[in-house]
Queue: 2 jobs
Job 1
Amino acid sequence: MTGIEHVEIAAGRWQLRPPVTSEAADALAMLVDPLTAQWYPADVTDQDSAAAWCLRGADWSTGTHATFSVLDATSGRLVGNVSLWGVDLAALTASVGYRTAPWARGQGVAPAAVDAVTGWAFGALGLERVELPHRVANPASCRVAQKCGYLLEGVLRQEYRDADGVRWDCHLHARLAADPPVSIDPRAGAA
Ligand SMILES: CC(C)(COP(=O)(O)OP(=O)(O)OC[C@H]1O[C@@H](n2cnc3c(N)ncnc32)[C@H](O)[C@@H]1OP(=O)(O)O)[C@@H](O)C(=O)NCCC(=O)NCCS
């Protein structure tokens, strides 16, 4: 089993690095936020489970994921989380997921973070394809995919089953390493 080495990525106004337990309080606030919980149910209910979630995110030793906290590069405060998951270093594929803290939404955090991690996945990990699945009912997530150049490849009918047993149609978007670069406005969200 080959792990993935920790890295930090600078993305203009934002900084990406593996999660740390000292940000558990902000991670908890982000994860129990109703919008986050609706689209990313994480089974995190208190400071201890949030700290455990941070530790799992920071453990890249299996080589199957690289999970980043997204920080405001000036204040150092947690503003989001992006995860390259389902990494297959033989097939050179992965998927990407993301969430932005409620106090940082609408500032381009998720597009900047997804774009930065995608570039690193293609450049440093040598991946050839990254998929971005999201429920069709989540248009904000679809917009992030579009802004990051993840082309819509189709609808996965009833693909996602939630905790209540309800099945949801999902969009499958993907980017290829060979796709033309996209331009994420580095000033997006600047005050
Ligand atoms: C989806 C999410 C990550 C977006 O993060 P963000 O950092 O606020 O991203 P942005 O600031 O670029 O906003 C996203 C885009 O979606 C648009 N958007 C936001 N809410 C929308 C809605 N309800 N319908 C359509 N578009 C919407 C924004 O206008 C923006 O597009 P624009 O730049 O063209 O105006 C954030 O809303 C979130 O954390 N949601 C809960 C978790 C989640 O859904 N994760 C994805 C699971 S697949």
Job 2
Amino acid sequence: MADHPTPPADASTDDPAAAPDGRRVGIIGAPMDLGGARRGVDMGPSAIRLSGVIEELSRLGHDVRDFGNVIVRTRATLEEGDSSARHAREVLRACASLAEMTGEVLDDGRVPVHLGGDHSLSIGSLWAMAKRHGPGGVIWIDAHADLNTPDTSPSGNVHGMPLAAALGMCANFPDFRHDGWPQCSVDPRHAVLVGIRELDPGERRYLRSPGAPTVFTMSDIDHRGLANVMAEAIAIASGAGFLHVSLDLDVVDPADAPGVGTPVRGGLTYREAHTMMEQLSDQPISSLDVVEVNPVLDTHNTTGELACELVCSLLGKRIL
Ligand SMILES: [Mn+2]
């Protein structure tokens, strides 16, 4: 399945910005565009690779291997299916393939890093993690909550549903069931959302209900400070079967991340996004998604390059 060459395994480095603890990292590209309405996000993995993410992580002292891309069928060849969850069956099929690849990365003793692609791919990455470790914790960094189900979604776009699916909330919809993968891959007590600033009515109702994940909106960040919010988010997400970070580039303000499908003003600044990643870098992160980079909507790969930079910050890159 690997269609990208593995770079030379040259982990030696004199780079003063090198990470103190070299980790084994496995990159997987997910050219997924079936979960959203705007085309072009399937080119996200190429844009992030083009920005030099593998070379940069290797320079930091990590042992990086590129496992290539998961195969996602072309939209033009598919039936849309039920309008309450467009292309859900094929999204979930691609997620099962992705989860298989993530399993290979775990077998190889590596931290899986998934490059997207729209956010629906996280259903697959979380399946793989939960199958290995049981239900885990997740820090969902996003402008949106991605907590719709086919019943509540105003758009029917599956990239607005992955966290709901991972919490087992879509289990009643046949297209979301997939034999061999856990129905619930995230423990809601260890699920936390950060950077949220646009919710649909069904999501708002759910987030206010008992037992729902913890949410830190942009207002919480304004009032309490980013570092305090992140410390609390880390504490909440830790202690479950695994610790996953799912980073949607639309959490960053469109001024700094123009190449995303659903931009919302009032997001994190460039510097805040880096601070957030730096705060996560000394945590035992089990796995990572970096999603929603859309080169068609981008300006000279600004958002692809930002994705690369943020992955590096999370994996230990420092100014000094
Ligand atoms: Mn998202």
